[in-house]
UniProtKB/TrEMBL annotation:
InterPro entries: Acetyltransferase_Butenolide (IPR053144), Acyl_CoA_acyltransferase (IPR016181), GNAT_dom (IPR000182). It holds the Pfam family Acetyltransf_10. PANTHER family: FAMILY N-ACETYLTRANSFERASE, PUTATIVE (AFU_ORTHOLOGUE AFUA_6G03350)-RELATED. It comes from Lentilactobacillus fungorum. Residues 5-130 form the N-acetyltransferase domain. This is N-acetyltransferase. It comes from the Bacteria.
């Protein structure tokens, strides 16, 4: 049974293992991973016993908007609708008065639409340098 948490703390190593399984992000830089965790004020996680199997990570004012930078689920757990449950629970946790905005990274347009997101053209990005 999958358990969800808005309060459980994760380590940089746990995040690295999860991100490595999905092939994203700078997993070799543990200090950077720790900063990614420490400076995100939204971290909603999915657990199978004590094993991290999914997460939503973002920044929010908890009043108007939440910018989601990661929605990640281990490949061997992706047929269990964990991604959908993470988004739904995140939205419930923040309240329906808070809009969720997701960066277009790692998910197809169809994936994002299945999660309830609508495509917007009103955004711009200044890309980071690695």
């Amino acid at each position: 049974m999958i358990n969800y948490s808005a309060t459980k703390i994760i380590s940089g190593n746990q995040l690295a293992v999860l991100l490595k399984m999905v092939g994203r992000r700078p997993i070799q830089d543990n200090r950077r991973l720790q900063r990614m965790i420490a400076n995100a004020n939204l971290l909603y996680t999915a657990w199978d016993d004590d094993q991290l199997v999914g997460l939503v990570r973002g920044i929010t004012d908890k009043a108007y908007c939440c910018y989601i930078s990661d929605v990640v689920v281990r490949p061997d757990y992706q047929k269990q609708k964990i991604r959908q449950h993470l988004i739904e629970r995140t939205h419930q946790y923040l309240g329906r008065g808070v809009s969720l905005v997701m960066a277009a990274n790692g998910l197809t347009a169809n994936d994002r639409q299945r999660l309830g997101f609508e495509k917007i053209d009103s955004g711009f990005e200044l890309k980071r340098q690695f």
